[in-house]
Amino acid sequence: MKKILITGGAGYIGSHTAVELWKAGMEPIILDDLSNSDPTVLDRLEEITGKRFAFYQGDCNKKSLLKSIAEKYKIEGLIHFAAFKAVGESTQQPLKYYRNNVGSLLVLLKFMEEKGIKDLVFSSSCTVYGQPEVLPVTESTPRQEAESPYGNTKKICEDILVDCVKSKMGIRVISLRYFNPVGAHPSAKIGELPLGTPNNLVPFITQVAAGIREKLTVFGDDYDTVDGSCVRDYIHVVDLAEAHVKALAYLNKQENNFYDVFNVGTGNGNSVLEVIHAFEKVSGVKLDYQVGPRRPGDVVKTWADTTKINNVLGWKAKYSLEDSMRDSWNWQKSLD
Ligand SMILES: NC(=O)c1ccc[n+]([C@@H]2O[C@H](COP(=O)([O-])OP(=O)(O)OC[C@H]3O[C@@H](n4cnc5c(N)ncnc54)[C@H](O)[C@@H]3O)[C@@H](O)[C@H]2O)c1
């Protein structure tokens, strides 16, 4: 079985990807320092797959740890999820973000070079596009100056990968630019586990519905969008996880020194109010929300053109917004 090292594999997207890798006949080896995840995810993954995945608790910035994993397993590919992702915190503590998000990529690339590991899938983000002038966003839409250190780490990491491939170090890399990951595994055994106040809309919605938070604020309803609230492309996390499997399969067929980038979204934009109403419809819970002022720095609307990933990787989102809301809600209820 092909062994794939997944950094940040105990986290939200990484844990779902571990399941999809396993379903596709690959064996995930999980490396996570649990800075933003819980060790019980390993038990939950076992409940879903019937397999206890190899797990290393530690920092992927540590070369010695990576080496000891490579001594035990023949690693044939890498998916690098591990990163800090709180945009607000990154503006307060930029060094923490540059060190972890950029520093870890440097360590991993050196490790790949030394061990002759060729294939890497990197977690990038639609944040690199900022507020695009033309919608939907294609992969050739120009990247904009980052709004935050977090966003900048994604841009810098993409640039580092391009330079390494240009230098002919022999690697094959895909950057996946995720739009807005939502939902949870349909089994409700794994999902997003925000520590403290959620930064993202959907965990906030489910926590308000569960009575953990009092009220949801919609930041602005007077934008130039379908109903005045901000618009995003919400992609179910299981669909997103499958995109990593497709990306690895595609990398495997490429020559050395390969780099490409793909948007991962549904191709549809939904407004914040549409998300709220979809949630209310599937859950039967009336949400307590209020409209507040616009939030500085918010992208007004963005959604993906998915033609490239549909045609080249043969991947297409299958889950609807309602599916995402149902699975997020079932996950939230399972936490009670
Ligand atoms: N969730 C989103 O909205 C979103 C959108 C675009 C891109 N991304 C990117 O996708 C990736 C995964 O995001 P997620 O939502 O699953 O986040 P997450 O926080 O749930 O998962 C990241 C995991 O990495 C671990 N980690 C962090 N630093 C580490 C280190 N140095 N060594 C080992 N483990 C470490 C954390 O403990 C966590 O389990 C990140 O790179 C993130 O920037 C996420």
TrEMBL record:
Catalytic activity: UDP-alpha-D-glucose = UDP-alpha-D-galactose
UniProtKB keywords: Carbohydrate metabolism, Isomerase, NAD
Pathway info: Carbohydrate metabolism; galactose metabolism
The protein's enzyme class: isomerase
Gene Ontology terms describing biological process: galactose metabolic process
InterPro entries for this protein: NAD(P)-bd_dom, NAD(P)-bd_dom_sf, UDP_G4E
Annotated ranges, domain NAD(P)-binding: 5-327
Assembly with partners or alone: Homodimer.
Stated name of the protein: UDP-glucose 4-epimerase
